Amino acid sequence: MSRQWAFLGRLRRAGVGHLAGGWTTAKEGSVAVSCWACPREHINIPEGWRDNPAMRFLYRLIVSMDANFRLKERLRLNSRGDDPLYSGLGYQPDLSKYADHLKHYVKESDVSSCVAFAAMMQRESRLTSGLRVSGVGGCVCARHESIRPQGLGDLQKGERWSNMDYIFWGATRGIGCLDVLLTYDIACQYNKHVNERRTHLPSSMRAGSDEGEHTYALPIWHGDVHAVECKTRWSLLYIPGAGKTDGEGPERVWALLNGMASDTKEMDVGTRHDRIEDRCDKHNFLKNVGLGRLLARRLIIARKESNLQRNAFEEVCATLRGELREDWTNLVDEWGLDRSKPSPFAPSGAATTGITERSTFNDNRGWKPVKPVLGKQDKLRERRVGLVRQFRQFRRQQRLLMPPAEDLWVAEDDKDRARNTVTLAENVKLWLPSAIPETNDIYATRNCSNWRLGFVEANAWMRSPQFDSSS
Predict the structure, then answer these.
(1) Any idea of the CA torsion for 154, 160, 163, 168, to the nearest 10 degrees?
(2) Which of 7, 30, 127, 271 could be joined to 267 by an S-S link, Cβ 3.0–4.6 Å?
(3) Cα–Cα distance between 458 and 416 in angstroms, integer?
């Protein structure tokens, strides 16, 4: 019932019920709530925007892509085969078309030469045993953190190009001749052969994709773990027109979606699909509602910081010789036209000295992770240490719930100290209730402040305040 109610609400908000052929004839992605602030031709872009190439960056679509390995789904043999209420109209691609595309990419060879980021090392090694879905890949607008229509797809085995290509080109389909800037934590590898891989996508995703320019960059935080040679070339900090965009929007989206990970992991395919659609729909709706406050706050900060940065830049320029400033400007302009040249932002000698991605890759070629081999004594020692930790927790509970047992294991410890010996963990007595002798004087009446009382004395002591207060 709740699935149907949410489903009807999404259709009503999208207005697809008024189509002549019914909602089943709606275009793919038309039910998703689109970001109001992202550039869309004939909607929020002024006419004649193509006439000024220098200001073209203002109308560039900036998206971020990432994978989330928390939103898993178990492989259930007793699944009912429950289908989603719709497929391909919202934030996830059509399941049948997506599955047909992935059939041609059962196995991918690792084409990576970048060892700076862990995602590339684990693309084919994610723990996928017993899982139908090992995670999801997502594409969101980087500036406003709204999930793109058809921008969320299941991953079967790690972060493979076949999945991420389908998600990226599906999420940016139908934007016309707008330029696209993609931030991805492994963009330095993803951009290689991207146009070649695009030819293997369905024809509907290739239409119109050549009209705009596509630029690839590393997010600010994730890019910092790459080698200097890599991050100075691909970092979003050095992309003209990127402004203060950090490219880490997917991480904040995952923080909101991961709350339902434990629920969706146990669901059937259809129920999980509809639950994710409903959560993404709510997320985008709330993002649009808050755009007024968000953009107003950013504008105030941008104006203030613009004046500060401009003044600081002018002060630095005033201290430089004219020819040196001109040389630096030419270096940056030439590098902006051809990024294969050495980056002017890299420290001197960074490309030829020290540890680089290529040298690290060559040193580790053919290397396979080796698990440390522990001997019997090492394993026994580890288990004893673990037992000792559990004993400490057990005795804390025993001291509260079984006060008589405390004197017994304290006495055992005193004997070990007197003999200057240590009882092995597996030989330590737990002093369970059945092991405590009834004839032991531990059951005798003891000091009330230490919780060592006989049964009669304890009851008398606990009831005495009642008698005192009633008299």
Answers:
(1) 110
(2) 271
(3) 33
Strand partners, 216: 182
- Tell me the per-residue pLDDT of 287-303, one tens digit each, with 9 for 90 and over: 999 999 999 999 999 99
Give the 3-state secondary structure of residue 335. helix
User: Which residue is it, tokens 């492994």?
Assistant: 186
CA neighbours closer than 13 Å in the CB half-sphere of residue 300 = 5
Phi, psi (degrees; rounded to nearest 5) at 64: -125, 145
And the tokens for 196?
A: 């070649």
Q: Is the pTM of this model over 0.90?
A: no
Structure tokens, 292: 């007024």
Nearest to 272 by CA among 31, 71, 5, 12: 71
Residue pair 141/249 in contact (Cβ under 8 Å)? The answer is yes
Largest CA distance in the chain: 100
pLDDT tens digit sequence for 441-452: 544 444 434 444
Annotate 56-107 with DSSP letters as a single string: GGGG-EEEEEEEESSS-EE--TT---PPPS-SSSSSS--HHHHHHHHGGGSS
Residue in 397, 399, 417 with CA at minimum distance from that of residue 408: 399
